[in-house]
Every structure is written in C-alpha cells, then in structure tokens.
User: Fold this.
Amino acid sequence: MSSLEVTARGAAADAISTHVPQLVKDEVASKLFAQDATLWGKAAEEEAGKRLSWVGLPRSSRPLLGEIAALREELRGDGVSRIVLCGMGGSSLAPEVICATAGVDIVVLDSSAPDVVRRAVSTDLKKTAVVVSSKSGSTVETDSQRRAFEQAFTDAGIDATRRIIIVTDPGSPLDGEARTAGFRVINADPDVGGRYSALTAFGLVPSGLAGVDVGALLDDAEAVADLLAADDEGNPALRLGAAMAGTKPLRDKLVLVDAGTENVGFGAWAEQLIAESTGKDGKGILPVVADGEAPKHTYADANLVRLVAAGDDDDEPDDDTDLTTDAEGAPRHPDSIAAEQPGPADISPEENIGDSGSVITVAGTLGAQLLLWEVATAVAGRLLGINPFDQPDVESAKNAARGLLDQTGSAAEEPAFVDGSVEVRTLGGEWLGDESTLPGAVSALLSQIDEKAGYIAVMAYLDREQDADLEQVARTLFDHTGRPVTFGWGPRFLHSTGQYHKGGPANGVFIQITATPVEDLAVPGREFTFGEFIDAQAGGDAQVLAEHGRPVLRLNLTQHGRGLSQVRSALTTPGA
Assistant:
C-alpha cells in the first residue's frame, strides 16, 4: 500500500491556502489526468497535446512487464550479470534512482569523457548487456556510446545484437537502423517527454533487466493515481505544486534535503524534472540538491524541501525536546533548528543568513513520488505561466557543440592566463579585470553574484566516480556566499539544469571545469573522438551561456591531479 504526504509551513503553507482552492475550482487535477492540453495556455497547447500520456503509465506500461522478465531470463542464460545503461537526462536519472532505491547494481554511462567510456566498455564484457536509451534516436552521446560498445563486443568475439537492447520512440532514426541491423528494440510511449518517462520503457527496461521488481513500482504509482487525479484540497500534488510555484513573492529556489527518505538519489531525478520543465522564458524554479543535512544558510527566495521516509511521524518534535543542542550537547545552527520546527525560526537580521520561513516536507514511496512530482511540476508550470513540456534552450547548446565539432583541428582559443596546471578562460563580459591567478579569477566571478536573487553553478566535465568528492565544493561555496550553488556533472546536466541556466532568470554565474584526458578514445565510424566531442559540448554550452549574458569562468586541467587540487583549493577558500 502506497502513501503520500505533503505538509508545509510558513510561506509555502500560505501558497497552498491561496492557490489550491482555485486549482480545485478549475478542475486542474482531473483535467490533467484526462490529458487536457489547454491547461497551460494556447501557446503550449500543441506541445502539451503530445506529451501527456505519462498520467496513465501506471496502467499502460503493464504490457512491458512480461517482455522485460523474458528478456532478463534470456540474458541470464547467456551469462549476463552486469547491465550498463547508455542514456542522458531522464533516460538515465530515473533508472539510477530506481535501482539505487532497490539496492540493485546498474552501471549508468551518461558521460562522453574518454576515460569514463573506456572504463565502461573494458569491464566484464562477457557478463555485460547494454541498454541504449534515446527518445529521439539521434542523441549523439548515446549513439557514440553504442558504437563504442558494439565495437568492443565485436572485438571480443561476442554477438553485439544479443547484448545491446535499444529503447527508443517508434519511427525514430535509431528504431529503423537498429531493427535493420538485427538489434532488439523496445519502443517507448512517444507521447511522453523524456523527463516524465520514469514509468515508461526508458525507466522500466534497464531497471527490470538489472533485477528491480518494476511491477511493484507500477503498483506503487497506481495506488496513488486516483488520489492525484482528484479535484480535492487534500490532493498532495496540488499542494506541492502550489507550494513550489505559488509563494508571494516567488521563492524560486527549491533546496532539496535528504532528511531520511528511502528513495536513494531522488533529489537528482527531481532536479532535472523541475529545472528542465520550468526554466524558460526568463522564469523558473531552480532546484538545489543539498549535500548532507539542512544547509547552514537559507535565503528569502528559497523553499526548503525535507524529503523524509514514508510513514515518518517524527516530523513534529515533542514539546519537551531541546532543539538548540545536538546529541553531544553542542549548539546547533538556527537553520537546522528551523527545519525541524512547526514554524520558522526567529533569526535576527544581523546574523545575515536570510530566513527559513518556508518549509515543505514530502514523504512517500518511490513509485508514488515519481508520479507526485511529475503532477506537481505540471501544476507549477500552470502557476508560473510556462509550458512545462518543452526545452527550447537545450537544443541551442547541442547546435553550438555541433558547430565546434565541425571546427575540430582548428587552433583552440588562447587562455586569459595559465596558473600552474589550470588554463583560465572567461566569457560573458569583461568581469575578470586584471586578475592573473586562479583564486583571483574565482573571486572576480563571485563578485558578479546578485546577492538577493543570484546563484552559482559548478559544471564539471570530469569523472563523476573518480572525482566524486569535488561535489563538496558546492556546499563550501554555499556557506561562503550565502547563495545557492548547484553542481552538475557534464554532459549529463545539459539535459537537466542546463535548460534553466540558459532559459531561466538571468542571475547565475558559472564555473566550468574540463580536463585533458589521460588518453583519447575514437568513436567508431565517426570523424571525431570522445575527447573532441566532450570538449565541443563544454565549449558549446559556455558559448550559449555567454550569448545569454551569463558570466562563465572556464577552467581546464592540463594535468588532472594537480589541476583538480588547485581548483578544489580555489573554490574551497575563495578570495584566499
């Protein structure tokens, strides 16, 4: 039996009281589940009309279960015990959280970095099957990864058509090409956008082949479908959507804190759903996945979201609980106290840490929460006055990357300066001044932050396994500046917060980190290498950000270990 609970206090609670009655009166929930494309206005109607089948997926995806089970047994009979998923955005993030929550291993390859791809294709090939997921069938990242695996299987004397499974929309270029070549193809529902596709073949096939009970996941979502479709003030999705997008003035930062949820890595999936759905037309909600416990700094333009375990009834503290000290008797930060109190903490202005007067608490099992947040994001889109189903600025970065790939072999842009093992380049204005050191460049960029509404984005085109601890710099910058910091691994964030960076409010500053690979890797059948491709992706994104007036600090590590140490130091102690 699945359950959902959304509670709020402070500004978020006020937004629920203000907007939910009107959402009920307008029959938004029932119209959404009836796939009414008019909910987001005339301009969005055409796109919405072909993107709403996700509301019925808990039932319509049932026929996949038998096919997945049969294919899993066939692969096991061939000695397969390792599943690799090649996919980007929602195609990779949903299976990642589904498998992590179930405690099931899956290798997610959503990088173009040659060292990362090489490691994936050279590990346990005899025990490996690969799911290649691409809705459009033309995603360059997944096409390149597929080519690398196909070559690796062939070189190892393994029939690639028995080890590579294609998931794509019917009629896509990949659909026809793969069928002609003899690969197994599973079609996804074409009327569902990528970030709403967790319960389609894109989420279910790789997860099911890895060993997750995906039937139970669908049961979980189906158990709450009627609740979420109800025009009722208790509808959790209406409440969450109103809290996200209905505060006055709008709190357009959503800080996601793991406060005990059983849904492992859920914040990263929610981040791409919210950022890519809402970040456009100069509007949007910026999701910030907090590292660790509730942040030390909050700010007046943020909602704090506590993701707690389903059935957790410890949200409200006992009256006699001393919240001012931790388990060892040490004083606790006011924001940590605020996140556990029924109302906002009484924080004096001189502490200069903003306020934590808007807290949302969400509980629910995974299948239920996948559907909850999809509905809530669609509701938020209506309140913001945007189309939650398009992604107009994702394509601009892809086009810029293609343009740079066409220029492969031409001289690279000279850096502004080189500091040790780091090349420093800047775009988006003349903000660097006379700075000639890495710490100075970081300080110059941070001086561009809008102290009331701005944010920092760290975008690392590196190895998210080998360099995982770099994510900690986001929390350090957060504590240092008092402004939100997002951290994204490139190129996967391009299909997530990348849309918000370019299409949302123009108040971000951007730190891009790239590296010279240890050894490049050819893309079979292509004229470019993986190293050239990821360079083009990074360069294209920086170029488009600059064209939108965003300041960008580009840091390239010429020697990985030494350069990364320099960058980590500069970001950990900015201005030092």
Summary: The first strand starts at residue 4 and ends at 10. Confidence is low (pLDDT under 50) at residues 313-355. The longest helix spans residues 366-384.
